[in-house]
Automatic annotation (TrEMBL):
InterPro entries: Acyl_Trfase/lysoPLipase (IPR016035), PNPLA_dom (IPR002641). This is Patatin. Residues 350-360 have a biased composition (Low complexity). Residues 203-275 form the PNPLA domain. GO terms for biological process: lipid metabolic process. It comes from Serinicoccus chungangensis. Residues 339-360 are annotated as: Disordered. Keywords: Lipid metabolism. It holds the Pfam family Patatin.
Length: 440
């Protein structure tokens, strides 16, 4: 028999239990309850796509009934707007309802935010003198830019108060252990909120850590943005499960400089925090569409390999989730930029009373090419992405998760001025191009 572990060290069973908790799948061991909405990464493109989906989910009574919203990167931008303390979430004791204030407190600020170029000032901060010697200069400038656009995000995360609504979980990637580090506000985990991961442990957010810092960290895609750094020795982390053969020196070094980057690096669908214990899981995927590409330079091949690794992990998660749907372990639906919105959700345009259906693939192709960026998006880009998110969410939820629909609301897709394929293509002309200094 192997010798027993030293006093205070975790047993192998405890380590395995911790791994099972973190790397769970649709076959959960604990009872499932409630509905979760996962909002993927994908920069401002994803934020706008998710806005359309959230509009339709609100009309159907789904949004107001959610237990949890889990989000990363561009999805975290929208998710944290949904934590505004003045939003009027329906009282579940009174039955289904819509969320009051969604237009003025969520949609309008998001559209204003996504008209700004936040990427370029953040990147330039790394080469300007005042950024020298600051390892997290770019993520700090990104956070400041986000706060200028959404001032109430400057509130300390631990002090953010609201009375109702779903728990909102903001995911980042912790580099040392390569796992998901999650920020939860006080409503999600009282009394002061919660942050951490299953390897390093958890704690309440420290004073001075703003909502906007969590959002910026979730959007900080490497190597373009530096990680947000935290000193774990000062946080009071509790719990955590190290590797069985890990030295204390290695663990101490990781804990001393906790580095957090874009949550999409580890889990771009934001699935991990919710897929083991929710009865219904809805996934809105505004991530980049993966397409075939001919051989290129060494640099382009390396970048392609990284993209393949990321896409493969995301595909595996989706297959795992869909397998859970198929065997009845949980209910739910998924939709993405690839979903044929004109064909699935806009029958008047696609099936004979408007633009012929043969042109719909051209519009979808233009949507697939929209860039992943935190640069300014034009009004046309905003309208197309929001409308597409509305249409595909409506079609997917009604077909695959009809039990989630609580209100009988007719479909009224926003922005009819970009309903036809030719209007979509025109609005998105040049939208795939990333410019060095930004569009504004």
């Amino acid at each position: 028999m192997p010798p027993p572990p030293p006093s205070g060290d975790p047993t192998l069973a405890q380590l395995e239990a911790a791994r099972a908790t973190a790397h769970h799948g649709p076959s959960a061991l604990r009872p499932r309850h409630g509905s979760a909405l996962c909002l993927s990464g994908g920069g401002f493109r994803a934020s706008l796509f998710h806005l359309g989906a959230v509009r339709r989910l609100d009309e159907l009574g789904v949004l107001g009934s959610l237990r949890t919203i889990s989000a990363v990167s561009g999805g975290a931008v929208l998710a944290n707007l949904l934590t505004h303390p003045d939003l009027d979430w329906p009282d579940p004791r009174r039955g289904p309802g819509r969320v009051g204030g969604l237009e003025e407190l969520v949609a309008t600020p998001l559209l204003e935010l996504t008209r700004r170029n936040l990427r370029t000032p953040a990147l330039l901060s790394r080469v300007r003198p005042r950024g020298w010697g600051r390892p997290d200069a770019s993520v700090g400038v990104l956070a400041d830019g986000l706060e200028q656009a959404v001032p109430w995000w400057g509130t300390d995360l631990r002090e953010h108060a609201r009375s109702r609504g779903p728990a909102v979980l903001t995911g980042t990637t912790e580099i040392g252990y390569g796992v998901s580090w999650v920020f939860a506000d006080p409503y999600s985990a009282g009394p002061r909120g919660r942050m951490g991961d299953h390897r390093l442990g958890h704690c309440a957010p420290p004073p001075g850590l703003r909502i906007v810092d969590a959002v910026a960290a979730s959007c900080a895609y490497p190597p373009f943005f530096a990680p947000l750094e935290l000193n774990g020795d000062e946080l009071g982390l509790v719990g955590g499960a190290p590797d069985p053969d890990e030295s204390e020196d290695v663990r101490a070094a990781i804990r001393r400089r906790i580095q957090l980057v874009d949550g999409g690096v580890y889990d771009n669908l934001a699935l991990e925090p919710v897929w083991s214990d929710h009865e219904t899981v809805l996934v809105s995927d505004g991530g980049a569409v993966f397409r075939g590409r001919p051989p290129g330079s060494l640099l382009s091949r390396l970048w392609r390999l990284l993209s393949i690794a990321s896409s493969g992990g995301q595909t595996a998660r989706l297959r795992w989730l869909h397998a859970g749907f198929a065997r009845g372990a949980l209910a739910g639906a998924t939709w993405s930029l690839e979903s044929p919105g004109d064909l699935a959700g806009d029958p008047g345009r696609a099936r004979g009373t408007g633009t012929p259906p043969g042109r719909a693939p051209e519009a979808l192709g233009a949507i697939h090419q929209v860039r992943t960026d935190l640069d300014a998006f034009s009004a046309g880009e905003q309208m197309v992405l929001e409308r597409h998110g509305y249409l595909v969410a409506d079609a997917s939820v009604r077909r695959h998760a009809p039990g989630s629909v609580l209100l009988d609301a007719p479909s009224r897709p926003p922005h009819p001025q970009v309903a036809g394929p030719s209007e979509v293509v025109s609005a998105l002309r040049g939208s795939g191009r990333v410019t060095a200094l930004g569009r504004r």
